[in-house]
Amino acid sequence: MFPSGTSFTPIPNPLLGPLLTSIEDINELKCILRCLWHIHKKKGPARIVSLTELTTDPVLSSLLAPNEIQSAMEAATRKGIFAKGLLASTRQPEPLFALNTAKDRQSLEKTLSKEAPFEPIIGNDSLLDTPGLPQKNIFFLYETNIGMISPLVAEDLMEAEKQYPWQWIQEAFKISVGLNKRNWRYISSILDRWSKEGKNGGKPRRHSKEDDRKRFIKEYNTRRGQIPSQQ
């Protein structure tokens, strides 16, 4: 039982969803969680953790050898969870890790000297293109960029995945994230507009009366909870 007043460490949503399925090494997971704890404890804008902090951490050092900790952090960096840079001002270049978001990557770059080599960053702040994860999965996009999926939204997502090209779906999500309009209603409106008016100068897709009738029945059912008489 946790004592009263226990503090909590925030964890990025993708790490509790799609990214979790890509972590097979328990040592890697331990290092990720402990590094997130260190990051959360940092004060100020530069929330950066050095490899030395991790290898001398009393919890990790009691479980893993320094080379195991380094290997685990390298694996997490390749997945796009952390950004990594090398601090050249020390006798031996010191690896530094930050959460792989645009803001934290920028802080990491400012911390490094101009002479320090900066290793390529894998992934991006929205984690839409993280290597090794299922890309053509609308549930992955939603959980990563919007949040938890309710049963009603799940039905709409499955319908959209059948109705629209995957490239449209991915672009609509990126637009919503870029405009900070992270909700399915906005994304759905983009897809619906492209379908009716055409995308990038394309011709609008024609709908039959039967399609319009089915759409009306579905919308009415959603609003009223019942289907109108089909006389």
UniProtKB/TrEMBL annotation:
Pfam families linked: DnaB_2 (PF07261)
Bias (Basic and acidic residues) ranges: 208-222
Residue span(s) of domain DnaB/C C-terminal: 139-198
InterPro entries (UniProt xref): DnaB/C_C, DnaD-like_sf
Leader sequence segment: none
Region of interest: Disordered: 196-231
Protein name: DnaB/C C-terminal domain-containing protein
Classification of source organism: unclassified sequences, metagenomes, ecological metagenomes
